[in-house]
Design brief:
Layout (H helix, E strand, L loop, with lengths): L1 E2 L29 E6 L5 E5 L2 E7 L2 E4 L6 E7 L5 E6 L18 E4 L7 E4 L6 E7 L2 E6 L3 E5 L5 E6 L2 E7 L2 E9 L4 E4 L7 E2 L8 E4 L5 E4 L4 E5 L7 E5 L4 E10 L2 E8 L4 E4 L7 E4 L6
Parallel strand pairs: 1-22
Antiparallel strand pairs: 2-3, 3-4, 4-5, 6-7, 7-8, 8-9, 10-11, 11-12, 12-13, 14-15, 15-16, 16-17, 18-19, 19-20, 20-21, 22-23, 23-24, 24-25
């Protein structure tokens, strides 16, 4: 999911009642990594099944904040707040909605994830992809519906697609891409209201629409693919880490772009040369 530096398990009930903020992650603690973001100091934040972690060194991930939500998607609002969705920390009474599923809706943090406040749709929506565009927030819900939140704070429902990832043309929010859970790429030319299969595209895990133009996607084995437009030819590019879970492009400027990959097992890698060379940022402790 496209990011800017100006801004990436079990539900906790009963036995997990103690505040674990500051705990260093052991082998397997992060579970699946769903999304990445950055704090106000530029440190990498990891959204996982077991909460929000801050990467402090190659072998040190620290549980951050007092609320341990299962964070399925994260992004930054235009105001700089961290936005997230997923499943709430049910130790906290305010996140329990009687008769409703454990859906976080949309939550906001104004302190880089140290604390959270439920904004809307608590118990009603579980978003697995969030993309902030200058026109508003687009969100892919697990029921297969795209939602849109405009600058006036009004929600509307767009088209139906079971998307694991969304990408939006930075210059035109009508142009969007989605990857479904089978790896199929879909395109919309009307702001997510209708979707058409991109039959010639490779099977992808995640896709990004770059600020500088063009599209880049990655498949499960770490092969990157590029295209100028969704319906144009897709060309094999560089190869990165395999067993991909999450792909993030961080753009400080047109000249300074960094790619980030998370892999099954929790390893995180980064590239500052568009995937030619990769450096480990986090290597989880050995489970042995």
């Amino acid at each position: 999911m496209l990011a800017s530096l100006s801004f990436g398990a079990a539900l906790f009930v009963g036995a997990c009642s103690a505040d674990r903020s500051g705990v260093v992650a052991s082998a397997g603690d992060l579970g699946h990594i769903h999304d990445l973001a950055f704090d106000s100091q530029g440190q990498l934040l990891v959204g996982s099944h077991t909460g929000l972690y801050r990467i402090e060194s190659i072998n040190r991930a620290v549980l951050f904040g007092t609320e341990q939500h299962d964070l399925m998607a994260m992004t930054r609002s235009d105001e700089g707040d961290l936005l997230a969705s997923g499943h709430p920390d049910l130790r906290i009474e305010s996140y329990r909605v009687e008769g409703r599923p454990p859906f976080l809706g949309l939550a906001r943090s104004s302190d880089d994830g140290q604390t959270w406040a439920s904004l809307e749709l608590l118990g009603d929506a579980d978003f697995h992809a969030l993309v902030q565009h200058r026109d508003g927030l687009f969100a892919a819900e697990t029921s297969g519906r795209i939602w849109f939140l405009n600058s006036d704070g009004e929600w509307s429902k767009r088209g139906t697609i079971e998307a694991r990832d969304l990408a939006i043309d930075p210059e035109d929010s009508a142009q969007q891409l989605a990857v479904d859970w089978d790896g199929q790429l879909w395109a919309s030319a009307d702001g997510a209201r209708t979707w058409q299969e991109v039959s010639e595209a490779p099977a992808l895990i995640e896709v990004e629409w770059l600020d500088a133009g063009g599209i880049v996607g990655v498949d499960e084995v770490g092969q990157f693919w590029r295209s100028e437009q969704p319906q144009r030819p897709w060309v094999q590019d560089v190869t990165g880490p395999s067993a991909v879970e999450t792909f993030l492009v961080e753009s400080e400027s047109a000249e300074s772009v960094t790619w980030w990959i998370t892999a099954v097992g929790g390893r995180i890698s980064t590239s500052s040369d568009q995937g030619v060379n990769w450096t480990f940022v986090y290597d989880p402790p050995d489970s042995d």
